[in-house]
Amino acid sequence: MPPRRQHYRGRNPARAHSIAELRAMAARRLPDFCLEYLDGGADDELALARNRRVLDEILLLPRTLVDVSQRELAVPLFGADIALPAVIAPTGFNGLLTHAGDRVLAEAAHAAGIPFCQSMVSTVALEDIAATGVRHWMQIYPFKDRDNLAAVVKRAEHAGCEAIVLTTDASVFGNREWDRRNYRAPMKLAWRKLLDVGLHPRWVLDVLVPHGMPRFRNLGDFLPPGMDSAKNAAAFLAAQMDTSLTWEDLRRLRDLWPRRLLVKGVLLPEDALRAQEAGADGVVVSNHGGRQLDCAPAPIETLAAVRQAVGAEMTVIVDSGFRRGSDFVKARALGADAAMSGRATLYGLAAAGAAGAARALEILRGEMERTLGLIGCARMDEVDARYVGRG
């Protein structure tokens, strides 16, 4: 009988062999409410599961007797190569996973030669992220106060951000039931969850002591005085989401922003075409990691149709569910310029801070390179639809 399998139980991220193993390490370090926020999806979590299921069902079709002794992962993105077809996706409240988590992720992305997309609800100032030298993208939400939103866009321009990414699928919040069960009132943890926090001293000494609760650093005049903590701001920010957002708002943002502009939250070819017509430079095919509409398709299953609709010139990025390097190869084969991943690097960050984030990207890079060799393709920029099939 083979020995019972189990993940590595220690704290050294160098001994993690997969993103799943980093997640197991993160689960031991984080309080329950943080892990639930990181892991969970909407409603019955059907979209969350579908994202992985559809990726898993895509087959890679290998060619044999191909010289793959030298393999190249770099691909072009907005006129300059990135070292591998990956972008760290925008995720909020990363200061709850480790102190200054966004800066740690940006530094890992810079070292890996890929862009970092910062969330508007990050807990590190965008100017500090820009100072890391990373290819810096700034994600924004459609808040009602257009003047303050314009001020954030101007800050991003002055800081040298390469791109603005407008998230369009979160003006109505998804129903994240399991996340809500951690709280007895908005942002007030249930008593048993407070006790659980005390059982995670490594997290407490990193996140809460001596820094206190993380604060939003990019919202400026959106928040009333003294309301910039994660604890105080959540309900206010939810009320600020603009449910009246239309394509005309995208055109106004296009007039305001002189650099690359992407629309995140596109799932259908017709919406990708409308984004293209409104002046967007790219789209992110996304269902928000399964955290919004629970009956949405997985982005990877609409990706090829989106690419066909917009043609070869528009940048197309895909996200949601990416955990293995082979997933990124599948995305390239189906027409994506690159794939965004949020949770994969967050698991590394939550497991072991800077070393964990770097290890997550190292694992993904190694898996991508190995997958190229196994499918008989020496260059990532040559991967196309010939290499994929359906199970």
Can you give a write-up of this model?
- The protein has 391 residues and is an alpha/beta fold.
- The protein contains 15 helices and 14 strands.
- The strands form four sheets. It has an eight-stranded parallel β-sheet with strand order 4-13-12-11-10-7-6-5.
Would you report the number of β strands?
14
Mean pLDDT: 94
Give helix and strand order, one letter per element, not per position: HHHEEEEHEHEHEHEEHHHHEHEHEHEHE
> Which stretches of 5+ consecutive residues score pLDDT under 50?
none
The backbone outline, from C-alpha atoms, is globular
Based on CA atoms alone, the radius of gyration comes out at: 20 Å
DSSP summary: helix tally: 15
Strand line-up across the major sheet: 4-13-12-11-10-7-6-5
- What kind of assembly state do the chains in view correspond to? single chain
Content-based structural category: alpha/beta
